[in-house]
Amino acid sequence: MQSSPSPNILGITPIFVFVGLIIFAGVATSDITAMPVLVGFMLAAGFALLLQPKGQTLSISEKVQLFCQGGGNSNIILLVIIFLMAGAFYSLTIDIGARDATVNLALSWVPQSLLLPGLFIICCFISFAMGTSMGTITALSPIGVGLAESLGLSSHLLMGVVISGAMFGDNLSFVSDTTIAATRSQNVRLTDKFKANLLVVTPAAIITAALLFFVDTGTPPPLNEESYTLINVLPFIVIVGCALTGMNVVLVLASGIGSAALVGLVNGSFDVFGLFASIQTGMGWMQNLALIAITIGGIVALMTAYGGIAWLIKLLTRRVKSKRGAEFSIASLVGFLDLTTANNTIAIVTAGPIAKNLGDEYSADPRRVASLLDIFSCACQGMVPYSPQLLTAAAIAGISPLSITAYCWYPMMLLVFGIISVATGWPAFKKPMQSGL
């Protein structure tokens, strides 16, 4: 197969088949969550196997091989490992009482009116320090679920709060892979991209926190004394502490699982075999999510091989005639790439060289280009119901990822202010760029 497939509009259609199935099922049943996500993607994968690259004919065996290579990509397998470990950690925290203890501790110390904006700000801080939205979501989603149950609030809302805070750091952090990818692709310094991003994301974060402040959280329930046993809170202290040191997310989860296992054995929540059973239960919760991730990887590989991604790039860049047009095309390109790949880092890496060429041709400031790549990829990533972030939160909460999207208020605000930034040319840099990262 040729390394650079010819642009082909049919190559992008599998993702539209998936979206069409979701919409059709939602309209037919008046329930947008009626179509199971995995079934939808499997049907889209079946459709993808019927297609062909332009000017070529691949056998079904060759297409299945391409699908398997995409599903077995190292990034996909890493996601599967993270999903399974996150499930194990969540199950253990429930069985040892860690989740309930942490929630009740928060209810006793944080004013009721500040619980939701407080959770959002905590997620923002942790994700900024960690540089990973996935680590934040796996660490704090159990607490969000516990708060929802304790306060009688919608778990969809609480998961939206966690995802919102997680995407804040994913976009802004100095150590985020999206930040690194965006700055390297445009050859700009991390601090310059940070300054451009900060002016756009700050109003989005403030509005999100203000909206959460006005959500009625009711009256706190009575608390039991045993809920304050601090040893039960230890797993969350360990996992957050390890994350803030910049430790790899797999090691962070391993530390959390180890500490939760130790606490459970010490306080008699289970014996060794009960520990193993709890871990197995949690991993079982994530099996569906792991299959979704593998299926998405396979579909993306087929769309790339068919020329669908190449067609999308050509479509969004062919009518650029001005600097503002170049910036809108860059924003649209990275956003659509994120919608098709469900991976904001891959979207940035793919769009980066095209964005660099467009920016140079139309005199767009590379610092703004790097900022736009990160802003629009993270905004879309935080709203796509089949992104790893929403799938993970949904699996932990036991709800549909489609039902969380409406509560991802920060990514929505980020998208709005990103569009305003492109339309107005704000923020603008007065001083010339210094080379180097």
UniProtKB/TrEMBL annotation:
TM region(s), chain numbering: 6-27, 34-52, 72-93, 114-137, 196-215, 227-253, 260-279, 291-313, 407-429
Keyword Transmembrane helix (UniProt): yes
Source domain of life: Bacteria
Membrane topology category: Multi-pass membrane protein
GO CC terms: plasma membrane
Chief location of this protein within or outside the cell: membrane
Alphabetized UniProt keyword annotations: Antiport, Cell membrane, Membrane, Transmembrane, Transmembrane helix, Transport
Localization annotation: Cell membrane
Domain Na+/H+ antiporter NhaC-like C-terminal: start-end pairs: 15-212, 238-426
Pfam family, one: Na_H_antiporter
GO molecular function: antiporter activity
Family designation: Belongs to the NhaC Na(+)/H(+) (TC 2.A.35) antiporter family.
Identification of the protein by name: Na+/H+ antiporter NhaC family protein
Biological source species: Salinimonas iocasae
Lineage summary: Bacteria, Pseudomonadati, Pseudomonadota, Gammaproteobacteria, Alteromonadales
